[in-house]
Amino acid sequence: MSLINSSGFMEIAIIAHDGKKADLIEFLIKNEAVLHNEKIRLIGTGTTGGKAEAAGFKTQRMLSGPLGGDAQIAGRVAEGITKMVFFFKDPLSSHPHEADINMLIRVCDVHNVPLATNEATAQLLLDAIAQQL
Ligand SMILES: O=C(CO)COP(=O)(O)O
């Protein structure tokens, strides 16, 4: 399983529900030494991506999650462009686009793409890839 896509980058998707956005930004800042590596490309759902950009992380923004951003990222996972997903889900809230959320998770499993749905898992994944950069 290669984590580098055909463009030569490790594209990581960053997504967070509203209740987890602050945690994700804090996670990015804590790991900025790895995330600013020239081989890493960040993409994100609309609002999450905007907050990451505001925190100093160059991020290609997709549509907002509820407007189809999760589906766009699922497409990139299916096409082998996005190689890892950090999705800080809020398990205590319901979401109108639950079908998109579940579809993204399913597509990651179909294509064997590493998916972290919480910070502990995201940290383990990032620590692992730091060795490969
Ligand atoms: O709802 C989301 C993921 O399901 C996140 O979308 P935003 O980053 O646009 O808020």
From TrEMBL:
Reactions performed catalytically: dihydroxyacetone phosphate = methylglyoxal + phosphate
Enzyme class: lyase
UniProt GO cellular component terms: cytosol
Keyword annotations: Lyase
InterPro entries reported for this sequence: Methylgl_synth (IPR004363), Methylglyoxal_synth_AS (IPR018148), MGS-like_dom (IPR011607), MGS-like_dom_sf (IPR036914)
A single GO BP: methylglyoxal biosynthetic process
Domain MGS-like, first and last residues per copy: 1-133
Molecular function terms from GO: methylglyoxal synthase activity
SUPFAM superfamilies: Methylglyoxal synthase-like
HAMAP family: Methylglyoxal_synth
UniProt cross-references to PANTHER family, sorted A to Z: METHYLGLYOXAL SYNTHASE
Family (UniProt): Belongs to the methylglyoxal synthase family.
Protein function: Catalyzes the formation of methylglyoxal from dihydroxyacetone phosphate.
Descriptive protein name: Methylglyoxal synthase
Organism: Flavobacterium nitrogenifigens
